[in-house]
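Mods, move this if it's the wrong board.
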Amino acid sequence: MKRGVIISFYSNFVIVSDEIDRSETLCSLRGRFKLSNIRPFVGDKVEYSKDHDRGRIESILPRRNMIEKPRIVNVDQVIAVFSVSKPDVPYSIIDRTIANVSRSIPNVLVVLNKTDITDEKKLEEFKHIYGVYTLYLVSAYEKTGIDDLRSGLKDKISVFAGPSGVGKSSLINAITDLNLKTGLISDKTNLGKHTTTTVSLLKIPNGGFVADTPGFTTTEFTNVAPEEVQKFFPEIFRASKACAFDDCLHEFEPECKVKELVEKGEIPNSRYKNYLSILNEIKSQKIGDVRLDKKR
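Not the wrong board. Structure tokens:
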């Protein structure tokens, strides 16, 4: 019996990468999976048997987590990719994206791409604001910072997320030595178009897998309690431990450590404002839900 991870689907078969030698085997599924309504997904760790050049999935091992859209399991970390030049992604979108992906996978690495066309002032500002995360400054075009980023992905299943046009596919090309289709920036909107339509795990030469994830970058917040929002902002959540009140939401409450650190400049004002924006959005949703229930 061998072990591996499902990296893609091919018709009614799956392709499994062996956990030892990383060889790929086209595997069929045992009939009992269909009878039990058990579906495998990309990222599933499996046991499989092999006969010549074909294999068969014998069992699917327990999953650690799951991203719903697109469906991928056992993810170790999210690589949130942005740019502040062509396109200049607003901090509000950056913060909403990071907050939303961290709901599914708490371990988020932040990558600023296109540093070759970003002025030094913007680079320093970005480092100041997002230094709370593991941060990589890279250029997919010039291949700078790629080796460091590749080391951060070693032996992990990583999914890439971020707005269109920031160069996710170009980065994956650089990391994996593949040639994925990339999109051009629209002259009218200054935003790119998604070029990834299916999900598969791509091998990193020194170990690990990456996936581009179309649809994973929604910035809408549903089924989130107001008190949960601070957990998506590490520096705010960390400071909240010193607030006078356990249920402090860092708005109008007295003796709030978060507001104190914002005033001192130790928590970036943009981060705090975007936290409040998401918080108030969710609180408004809750009020709307209560009113709707009363009407019913």
